[in-house]
Every structure is written in structure tokens, then in C-alpha cells.
Amino acid sequence: xxxxxxxxxxxxxxxxxxxxxxxxxxxxxxxxxxxxxxxxxxxxxxxxxxxxxxxxxxxxxxxxxxxxxxxxxxxxxxxxxxxxxxxxxxxxxxxxxxxxxxxxxxxxxxxxxxxxxxxxxxxxxxxxxxxxxxxxxxxxxxxxxxxxxxxxxxxxxxxxxxxxxxxxxxxxxxxxxxxxxxxxxxxxxxxxxxxxxxxxxxxxxxxxxxxxxxxxxxxxxxxxxxxxxxxxxxxxxxxxxxxxxxxxxxxxxxxxxxxxxxxxxxxxxxxxxxxxxxxxxxxxxxxxxxxxxxxxxxxxxxx
Length: 303
Description:
Strand order of the largest sheet: 1-2-3-5-4
Order of helices and strands: EEEEEHEEEHHHHHHEEEEEEEEHH
Largest sheet: 5 strands, mixed, barrel
């Protein structure tokens, strides 16, 4: 049967049969060939169901892979390719022994050193979201603030070309997204003096550390309870004092009470009225008259 119908070889995949000529078919329930992995479709017919056409194999003959080597060696070929394995988020080398369009055998391995450049291209095609978009946007905004307000620092605006070059460099020799994430791309793109001029955090008199919020097109800001700013006559600033931080002053409940860049003006003009309201809502909290010289609550105290 194989010698007579070499173009009708099929391989079982679950309940389907994959055809060497391409496409798939179903084996008739009446067929006596039930357990064979490879077979020859002796008799097939097309059946129409609505808009779908299905190929039904009514008569088949079981064969063995070794027979293909004996009878049809010219139809066998090896094919090796780099593929993306989504479950493992990595590049793999797949080697297949093909009979026409049918894969008889398949092996997988990681790319070798001589395949690293091709593997890097496949990896980069699936590296969306690396580096982390939020962290990247934050770094861009930090650099933009320093570039605008401290030009003498020599920190240039963020370069997409440099990011791409760093990403390509990290991808060489890597095969998985995990390795690419662990490369910590943003650290190598962070200018040396950036942490001093546009720090990640600022400290308040009571010892509380606040994370500075950076976003492109918006002034850098911090947010915390209004009481945490007690003892500050002026709000914290960055870029050698040239950029005052926008302060989001919160009530003990966490709700915003005021947004300002002028803490001294807030203490003088707005705090007295807000103090009366907060004393009524939160009588168990201390609300001193002169907040600019008052002691802030301890950072170890439970909010």
C-alpha cells in the first residue's frame, strides 16, 4: 500500500490525521486501523457540512516509519529552525525529520553560540514590555527634569537608539525573556549623577521616606499625610533646589486635602482653616497651630 500510495501517508494526532500532502482528515469509525501512529489513506472522500468540508478516511493501512526509509528515502529530509516557545518564553532550535509536509520526528534544544545572533533576533521580536514600561517612563521623566533644569550636569535627553542598542546587546547570548529581564537594562542607562539630582526618594524631618513621582509632562511630586510635613518651613526640592516638589497633602484617612508647591504659603494662608476642619474630623490627632515648627509624628507610629 505504501509503494502504491506514497503521497497518502498520514500521522495520527489525537483524533485527527495529519496528511503528508498537507491538511488534516478524520479516520472513519468503521476503520480496522485504530492504534497505528502512521498509516496510508487508501480510500478517502470529502464530505460537506454546511460551509465546512471534511476529509474522511474510510479505508487505511498501518505502516511503520522504517518502511519510509526503505521505500521512499528521496521523500525524507531534515529541517532545522529557530522557533519561539511561548510556554517557556524562550527561543528553541527545532529539528524535524520530514516526509513531504509531515513531521515524523522532532527534537528540541537551546541555541548554540554560533546561532546566538539569529536567536537574538527571534528573542527581540517577543521582547515587548522589556524593560518594564512604567520603570522606563519614570527614568525618561527623571532624565528630562535634570536635562531641563540642570544643563550643566551634561545629562542628555533619553535616547531610544541607545535603549535599542542596549537591548540588542543584552539579547546576544540570551535565549529567554527571563534572562533579558535579569539583565537590568535600565541600570546601565541611568546617568551617574541622576540619583543625586533627581532622587528616587526624599526624606522628611520625622524620618519618613517618600517616593518621588516622576511622569513626563508633569512636575515631580510626593504624597503623604499632612502631619508628616510638620517641621518643614519649605517643601523638599530636587535638581540642586531648583525644582520644588509638588506636595499632595493627605488627611489621616488618605484623602487629599491640598496640592501645593508652596508649603510656606500653605501654612500661612490655608492651614488655619484646614486645621479647624481636621480637628473636628480627627480629634485624636494633634493639630498644632504652628505646623512649620511642630514635631512630625514618628514613622514607627501606626497610622
